[in-house]
Amino acid sequence: MGIMLDQLESLRLSLLKAVSDAASMGELEEIETKFLGRKGELTAILRQLGTIPVEERKVVGSRANEVKMEGEAAIADRRQVFATSAHAEIADTDWADVTEPGVRPPKGHLHPVSQAIREITKIFDHVGFSRVRHPEVDWDWFAFESLNMPKEHPARDEWETFFVDAPETKQGRMVLTPHTSNSQVRELLLGELPIRMINIAKCYRRQIDVTHVPVFHQFEGLYVDKDVSITHLRGVLDYFAKSYFGPDRVTRLRPHHFRFTEPSFEIDVSCGVCGGTGLLNGAKCRTCKRGWLELGGAGMVHPNVLKAGGVDPKVYSGFAFGWGIERTASMKSGTKLDDIRILYKNDIRFLEQF
Ligand code: PHE
Question: β-strands 195-204, 130-132: how paired?
């Protein structure tokens, strides 16, 4: 029995030493198998139990158990040390200060034309004009003919039209809409009266220079009901001018001619730079023409247009207006664009300013 107890003691000592010398989790693993594993040294010693008297076996057996438990505890302790130091290492190299202020990613904003579209939509929405959609590629009939502009009529020349190379139909050739006024008859034909619409869409014309781009935007207003008069038109225009440009702005109507409105007007808005006086510090205001800026066209819907839309002009009347978004937006910001094309050059240095 003495021999076996000695063997256990020397196993215990070498086990503890090996554990304290171990340099990694991996080594600990090997030590555990070597000393305490199923085919390990402790098992080898215990195999000799059969060679000693029964009453001694108990003593040796319980001693072996103590050695095993002590060894396992030492291994567990050492494991803990390795685990903690592994964490410590991660904490040293791989950490984040959660209290540090974040880095904001660069954030863009809507294009000035999109901003204007949203704002104009909202302003008209407040007085019950809902935004509608109508085609941007349409038949000649909607773009011209139904608007009181028969084929070959010289008034058509003003709308330098792109034609689509497609077979002609009863409604004529297909065009890229040169204005948003095609929406007038399209809306009338829907047959839901009264109408209070705002149609914002792309328009196309064969022109490109410092004041024109071939693809631009217009917003078209249409109000059709019983007893609509020019007073209503003025009221809506003034409301828009004040909401969009500022409370001290007013509009004026100048006689003009459109085939689809009668009477027709050119709408001006008072200049925000000189306050509508045309004079700035005693000199001529360079932003406007004698105190006014041109907004766009408007008028009372022509009876022929109402008829084309299936609406009886003896019962109903209405007004319409159509203006360019690019122009209206640049008038608001007060930026005098030397060249309107800059809006579509995607030059961030320009766009960031809005
Ligand atoms: N469609 C006309 C244009 O493009 C503007 C307009 C719209 C005029 C509605 C009167 C009424 O110039």
Answer: parallel
* Cβ–ligand 1 contact at 297 (below 6 Å): yes
Non-local CB neighbours of 94 within 8 Å, separated by 6+ positions: none
The pLDDT score that the predictor gives to residue 155 is: 84
Ligand 1 site, residue 322, Cβ cutoff 6 A: yes
pLDDT band at 281 (very low <50, low <70, confident <90, very high): confident
| Per-residue pLDDT tens over the stretch 282-335 | 899 887 889 998 989 999 999 999 999 999 999 999 999 999 999 898 888 666
Q: Could you identify the atom of ligand 1 that is nearest to the CA of residue 181?
A: 1
Q: Which of 236, 287, 5, 231 is nearest to 120 (CA)?
A: 236
* Cα atoms in the 13 Å half-sphere on the side-chain side of 224: 29
CATH number for domain 2-93, candidates 1.20.58, 1.10.3470, 3.40.50, 3.40.720: 1.20.58
Specify the DSSP element, H or E, that contains 216: strand 215-225
Residue range 124-162, pLDDT digits in tens: 999 999 999 999 999 999 999 999 999 988 888 889 999
330 CB near ligand 1 (under 6 Å): no
Decide: 309 in ligand 1 pocket, CB within 6 A: no
Ligand 1 atom closest to 301 (CA): 11
Check pocket membership of 324 for ligand 1, CB cut-off 6 A: no
Contact 225, 207 (CB under 8 A): no
CATH topology of domain 112-351: BirA Bifunctional Protein; domain 2 (3.30.930)
Q: Whose CA is nearest to atom 7 of ligand 1?
A: 322
Mean pLDDT of the region 55-80: 89
User: What pLDDT is attached to residue 169?
Assistant: 96
Residue 299 Cβ contacting ligand 1 at under 6 Å: yes
Alpha-carbon distance of 332 to 23, in angstroms, equals 75
The whole-model pTM stands at: 0.72
Site to substitute for ligand 1 among 149, 179, 300, most atoms within 8 A of C-beta: 179
Domain extents for the chain?
A: 2-93, 112-351
Checking if the pLDDT of 33 tops 80, the result is yes
User: Which whole number is the average pLDDT over 99-117?
Assistant: 92
